[in-house]
Automatic annotation (TrEMBL):
This is DUF1416 domain-containing protein. It comes from the Bacteria. InterPro entries: DUF1416, Ig-like_fold. One of its GO terms (biological process) is carbohydrate metabolic process. SUPFAM superfamilies: Cna protein B-type domain. It comes from Saccharothrix syringae (Nocardiopsis syringae). Pfam families: DUF1416.
Length: 100
């Protein structure tokens, strides 16, 4: 099944960020190696599910979000992990999620 028609942005490419856009982007890794095919979920500050993408073959993911506190959770057959990120304003906010 291809994700091309689902409306999700292509993962793993450089992104131009507008002056008011908040982008949460990063990689899913296991033992330092990229993990492709992980389900990466974005949770708001209350823990509510907001969005989900599948990491690229290189482990890349990206979400367009609002400023605030976010949790990024990765689910993969090799393990699960999560990381927190604070997006205090527009721009690119990097986050790495380790699964084990």
């Amino acid at each position: 099944m291809s994700l091309d028609g689902c409306g999700a942005p292509q993962q793993g490419v450089d992104v131009a960020v507008g002056p008011n856009e908040v982008v949460l982007t990063g990689k899913v890794k296991a033992g330092g190696a990229p993990v492709g095919g992980a389900y990466v979920r974005l949770l708001d500050s209350s823990g509510e599910f907001t969005a989900e993408v599948v990491s690229s073959a290189e482990g890349d993911f990206r979400f367009y979000a609002a400023p605030g506190e976010w949790t990024v959770r990765a689910l993969h057959r090799s393990g699960n992990g999560q990381a927190s990120v604070t997006a205090d304003g527009p721009g690119v906010h990097p986050v790495e999620v380790a699964v084990a």
